[in-house]
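Complex 296.
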Amino acid sequence: MANHDLYQEVTNTFIALLEQDGIQAWRKAWKNISSSPVNIITGTQYRGWNWFSLTLAAGPRPNQWATFKQVQSQNGHIRKGSAGVKIGFYTPREKHESGDEQTSDDVLAEKNHRFIFRIYHVFNALDIEGITVPSPVPFEGNAIQSLMTVCLSKLKKDGLVYKRVGNKAAYWPKQDIITVPEGRFDSPQDYCAILAHEMTHATESRLGRREKINDWFPDFDESYAFEELVAELGAAFICAHFNIKGDYDNHASYLHSWLKILKGDKFTLYRAVKLAQEAADWLLDQQVAPALQEAA
Ligand SMILES: [Zn+2]
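Predicted structure with zinc ion bound:
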């Protein structure tokens, strides 16, 4: 299976979710996740595209996964009739492996040709029998404080001004200011979720995202919608990292544009997820090993 089919399949699932219940459905999906997706045998935390695919597929189930082979190696088995979820990894190319039919995809042209894309099926913890599945380990500590000391501090050190003022949460790119209204949130978690969204916007020029987006989407509405998608996804990565289960309403006026850009190109979602992971890594000050970056 070519990897662009993988992107198309997950994009279709995401579109179906949005068409059914709008952007709130997506927020609800990531708000209810038990943790970031993790491999129950190796403890590997999935990132980027795999993070998104697995989180979308997990629904209310534990976000814990393993391949058939891994389960077998532990003398466990997969419950009959269970459906696996496809994930992809770039793995170092063996010497004898030559052609990689996917390198013509523009998204992948930037990939190092020493790597080859492989697809694996992983099964949810609830479909695995005969082995003890460890409980997910959520982030421990004060989520709000951590969000402030890690992400917001990083931005402030880089010149951003943060103000609790006004009646609208926003990032103002020209002034490099984030404003979040005082006392308009149902819970501290909701406040964190919107702050994570605005902080992701604040990485746009810092990480050179604006040029890429303008290149891909010359139409203003579409480029705006794409950046909103990146901010949503960035907030999802950050909130999952700190186990923040917040929600907010920002009127979702870009739903129509989201659907348009998602339907227009099977790589749109892949690109948004990749850029959101980059933004979250920067905000969380995470140094990521090159091998894992390839998997994102
Ligand atoms: Zn936004």
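The longest strand covers residues 115-124.
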